[in-house]
Every structure is written in structure tokens, then in C-alpha cells.
Amino acid sequence: MITVISQTTAEREEETRQLFLQVKPLLDQGYTLSKAVKQELNIKHNAFYNQTWYKDLKKECIRQGVKPNGNY
């Protein structure tokens, strides 16, 4: 059985903003976005790089004026 989870654009954008707020302190410490995400979400792999949520998070970082590669 396949379970489909749907969410509105507004819900997805809010989820992205919340994740940004969660990883921002680590980005401020110089972590790269991928390392901050791994730390906060306790992920041990790199398979999320091409996921839409990660690309949206990267765009949110740029929109907020935070460079996702950790360099300011």
C-alpha cells in the first residue's frame, strides 16, 4: 500500500521557513547547509541533496541573505 502525503504550497513554505530557523544557528557558526541539515535532522547520508525540500531550503537561505556554503 502506498500512502500519499499532500500539503499545500503554504504549508510547504512554512515547513521550509521552520527548517531554516532550525539550521540558521549552525550556518552562523560556519557550517555548510548540508552539514547543518545532517546535524539537525540526524541524517547520516547525502541522498537528500537532490530532494525538492533541500533545494527549497537552499533558496530560503539565499532569500534570507545567508550563504548556504557557510562562507560569509
What would your notes on this structure say?
The protein has helices at residues 9-28, 33-41, 52-63. The chain has one domain. The mean pLDDT is 90. α1 packs across α2 and α1 (9-28) crosses α3. With 72 residues, the chain is mainly alpha-helical.
How many domains? The number is: 1
H and E order: HHH
Helix content: 55-70%
Shape: globular
Helical/strand content category? mainly alpha
The fraction of residues assigned to DSSP E strands is under 5%
Largest sheet, in brief, is: none
Radius of gyration from the alpha-carbon trace, in angstroms: 13 Å
Low-pLDDT segments, ≥5 res = none
Give the rounded overall mean pLDDT. 90
Q: Characteristics of this structure?
A:
72 residues; mainly alpha
Topology:
Elements lengths: L8 H20 L4 H9 L10 H12 L9
Helix pairs in contact: 1-2, 1-3
